[in-house]
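Translate structure to sequence.
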């Protein structure tokens, strides 16, 4: 399976609390910054994206958020809920023992090896949605095949960013891009090793 990550970020790279007040960690007070910009095309794209998944991979915090919301919906109530509730789910956690959401497997111990085994299975996409800490870790361990960045035209000015101030450097190949009517843009990237840097001129 191809491992893909999908993250909604602001122009300054913030991913925390895009949908509302669900994440106030660190004193974050600007939740819901993504709510003005979804339109029918964005919603259709996201629903179709979930339908492409053969399985889902989560970090614990996002898993519990999704389980409490999407996992509580009845069949046929929403295409995203239907996708999540009918496909295998995996959660990377060293502390979670009883996930309760049906068809969920906890990955602990050697998570890199476990994810590698999942990727080796036949199928289309192993999708990661949100799960910022996990997405960063997957990138650091060269486990991501494609990144979907849904960029919202707003500068949030505070909050957890997808990429920290210090971290690994990663070159990206742009595979596709798309603009939506209310200003959001989609960038699809493939990680391509380390970037090339300018060579200092000889003195």
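Result:
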């Amino acid at each position: 399976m191809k491992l893909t990550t999908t993250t909604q970020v602001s122009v300054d790279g913030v991913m925390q609390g895009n949908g509302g007040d669900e994440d106030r960690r660190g004193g974050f007070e600007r939740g819901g910054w993504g709510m003005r910009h979804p339109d029918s095309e964005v919603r259709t794209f996201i629903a179709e994206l979930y339908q492409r998944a053969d399985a889902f991979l989560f970090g614990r915090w996002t898993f519990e958020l999704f389980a409490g919301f999407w996992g509580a919906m009845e069949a046929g109530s929403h295409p995203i809920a239907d996708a999540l509730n009918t496909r295998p789910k995996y959660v990377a956690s060293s502390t979670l023992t009883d996930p309760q959401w049906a068809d969920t497997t906890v990955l602990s111990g050697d998570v890199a090896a476990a994810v590698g085994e999942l990727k080796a299975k036949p199928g289309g996409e192993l999708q990661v949605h949100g799960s910022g800490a996990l997405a960063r870790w997957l990138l650091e361990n060269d486990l991501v095949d494609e990144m979907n960045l849904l960029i919202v035209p707003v500068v949030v000015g505070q909050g957890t960013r997808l990429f920290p101030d210090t971290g690994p450097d990663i070159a990206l190949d742009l595979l596709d891009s798309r603009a939506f009517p209310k200003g959001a843009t989609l960038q699809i990237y493939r990680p391509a090793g380390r970037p090339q840097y300018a060579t200092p001129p000889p003195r």
